[in-house]
Design a protein that fits this description.
- With 232 residues, the protein is an alpha/beta fold.
- It has one domain: P-loop containing nucleotide triphosphate hydrolases (Rossmann fold), CATH 3.40.50.
- The protein contains 9 helices and 10 strands.
- It has helices spanning 43-50, 70-73, 91-101, 107-116, 130-142, 160-173, 187-190, 211-218, 222-229, and strands spanning 5-14, 17-27, 32-36, 58-63, 66-67, 76-79, 148-152, 179-184, 196-201, 204-210.
- The strands form 2 sheets. Strands 6-7-8-3-9-10 form a 6-stranded mixed β-sheet, sandwiched between helices. Strands 2-1-4-5 form a 4-stranded antiparallel β-sheet, covered by helices on one side.
- A hairpin with a 2-residue loop joins strand 4 (58-63) and strand 5.
- The longest helix has 14 residues, at 160-173.
- The chain is globular.
- Bound molecules: adenosine-5'-triphosphate.
- Adenosine-5'-triphosphate binds next to strand 2 and helix 1.
- Keywords: ATP-binding, Nucleotide-binding, Transport.
- It comes from Paenibacillus lutimineralis.
- InterPro entries: AAA+_ATPase (IPR003593), ABC_transporter-like_ATP-bd (IPR003439), ABC_Transporter_VariousFunc (IPR051782), P-loop_NTPase (IPR027417).
Length: 232
């Protein structure tokens, strides 16, 4: 399969505010893609459309060659920038909740990841710090055997030392025939794991390139390129 995700001429407005403007791109399987842009550039909107959470938009979106529907939802695992779990839950309740809800949830992988992330199943979610909560959300999202993972700002609240560990977990725990899209503005910390990057600025896709090619062609790191494109 060539295209795991394809956007063709996709636009999305919230009232009179345009969030995505005629966006077209496609990505193949087995890639880690950085979706990069400053605040309000349209990253979350793009992810929510792909996850099937924003049904009203113009243009065409396909996942694994299929228009968005319940089938595509079942192969897309989305980690939103705000937790989906309830604060009364303990960590183990969140795991059970996901396991009941998603038939592709891999319990053995979830338990292994909890351990790696130093998360205690007995802890209440309301007692977790922002960074620990992100570790939990990441564990939940990556423990599904999905085809496409969408991680919206997965390391914003994690301290710099733990970031390395979390990035290693992302690379280790995602299955390699699937693809992973990660939105972030922490470009420098995370660019080492990207195969491709997409820059999105005020709703316009301004660059989509393989990281190797970008470095060769422009003689710059992704972070330097990001600063240049998004300079205010
Ligand atoms: N529910 C909404 N109602 C109205 N406007 C919205 C809504 N959600 C997003 N927007 C607007 O759409 C634009 C794109 O927002 P989006 O959340 O997709 O950006 P983002 O790149 O994810 O930003 P951030 O990095 O700050 O999370 C912004 O101008 C935002 O204010």
């Amino acid at each position: 399969m060539d295209n795991l995700l394809q956007f063709q001429g996709v636009s999305k407005s919230y009232g009179s505010r345009k969030a995505l403007n005629d966006v077209s791109f496609s990505i193949g399987p087995g890639k880690i893609i950085g979706l990069l842009g400053t605040n309000g550039s349209g990253k979350s909107t793009l992810m929510k459309i792909t996850a099937g959470l924003l049904p009203v938009y113009s243009g065409s979106v396909t996942v694994a060659g299929q228009p968005l529907d319940l089938n595509t939802k079942s192969i897309v695992s989305f980690m939103p920038d705000r937790p989906l779990t309830e604060s009364w839950m303990k960590v183990r309740d969140a795991i059970t909740f996901y396991s009941d809800f998603y038939s592709d949830f891999d319990m053995a992988k979830a338990l292994q990841m909890l351990d790696f992330m130093n998360l205690n199943p007995q802890d209440r979610i309301s007692s977790l710090s922002k960074g620990m909560n992100e570790r939990l959300q990441l564990t939940l999202a990556l423990s599904r055997n999905a085809k496409l993972y969408l991680l919206d700002e997965p390391i914003g609240g994690v301290d710099p030392v733990a970031r390395t560990k979390i990035l290693d977990a992302i690379v280790e725990f995602y299955s390699e025939d699937s693809s992973l899209i990660i939105s972030t503005h922490l470009v420098k910390d995370i660019e080492r794991i990207f195969d491709e990057v997409i820059f999105i600025k005020n709703g316009d896709l301004v660059l989509h390139e393989e990281v190797e090619e970008l470095r060769l062609k422009h003689g710059k790191s992704v972070d330097d390129m990001f600063k240049e494109v998004f300079a205010e």
